[in-house]
Design goal:
This is Antirepressor protein Cro. The chain is mainly alpha-helical and 90 residues long. Helix content is 66%, strand content 0%.
């Protein structure tokens, strides 16, 4: 996890809740936070647990180099439409 997405994840959900949702120990999640790296197999599941308020790119840009990588299509379309509306109003 890097920078703001790491901080955002801490604000969104407790480490114990992540552990419960993923079926891992709280100690494992604590290690992820300490190393600021979520194992590849858990990145998408963590994003799902927090309802995509953090992105795969934000958590592991080495695995998801583009900001919209691995984001579900419905969310991607919604995000694109919102950005277009904001730019139109500026």
């Amino acid at each position: 996890m890097k920078g703001n997405d790491y901080d955002a994840l801490r604000e969104l959900i407790a480490q114990n809740a992540i552990a419960r949702n993923l079926g891992v120990t709280p100690q494992a999640v604590n290690q992820w936070f300490s190393k600021r790296t979520i194992p590849a197999r858990f990145v998408l599941r963590v994003c799902e647990v927090v309802e995509w308020k953090v992105t795969p790119h934000g958590l592991r840009p080495d695995l998801y180099p583009h900001p919209e990588d691995a984001i579900p299509d419905l969310l991607r379309r919604s995000h694109t439409a919102t950005n277009a509306a904001v730019m139109k109003n500026e």
